[in-house]
Amino acid sequence: MDRVKGPDKRAERSRRTREKVVEAARELFVARGYGATSLQEVADRAGVAVQTVYFVFRNKRTLFKDVVDTSIAGDTESVATMDREWFRAACAEPTAAGQLRAHVRGTREILGRVAPIMPLIAAAAATDPEIAAQWPQGPDPRYTVHYAAAEALAGKPDARPGLSVEMAADLLFGLLSPQLYLIFVRDRDWSPDTWEAWARSALISQLCADPE
């Protein structure tokens, strides 16, 4: 009988090391900025040798891209947003109002991680062409996600009559943007709960039929 293999301890250690480095880099990038943060400082914060950081990520640009990607995803798994369980469950809600509640909640989780680093992306891309090249020009991935949500929403029984997929996608894309989230949560000191309640109410009033 073949012996059942246990978990790959080396792979698990590598995963934990990668996560520690990414989290340390995220904290330093947000606190100090991309340009002012060195890989030695990231290594010190993560509690690893700087050679380990170079071995795993090769350079600071690659590490920065990983910080952005894992902030969007919430983990190191290479699963697209539209394939995530929360997004599929939201789209499967039987009513537009139910889908919006779940969609806003899931988007809030992403924005809480991503919105603080959005200014860093713009600043780093403006000074480093190689960083800018890591995000090719083309359709905004956020819009692609919200458009898919709008397609699921527009045909539901309580969707606003005459609502087009394009209009629904535009409203989701605009009201759930990182920029607007930062205006309310960072600049106006709203709590994430308050922002979520506002966004949910605003979208339901715009995208759902008026109650009789």
TrEMBL record:
Keyword DNA-binding (UniProt):
yes
Q: Could you list the residue ranges that cross the membrane? A: none
- SUPFAM superfamilies reported for this sequence: Homeodomain-like, Tetracyclin repressor-like, C-terminal domain
Species lineage? Bacteria, Bacillati, Actinomycetota, Actinomycetes, Streptosporangiales
- Which InterPro entries does the UniProt record give? Homeodomain-like_sf, HTH-type_TetR-like_transc_reg, HTH_TetR, Tet_transcr_reg_TetR-rel_C_sf
Q: Which Pfam families would you find in this protein's record?
A: TetR_N
In this entry, the residue ranges of the DNA-binding region are: 38-57
Arranged from A to Z, the UniProt key words for this protein are: DNA-binding, Transcription, Transcription regulation
Q: Which PROSITE patterns match?
A: HTH_TETR_2
UniProt name for this protein: TetR/AcrR family transcriptional regulator
> Could you tell me which residue ranges the HTH tetR-type domain spans?
15-75
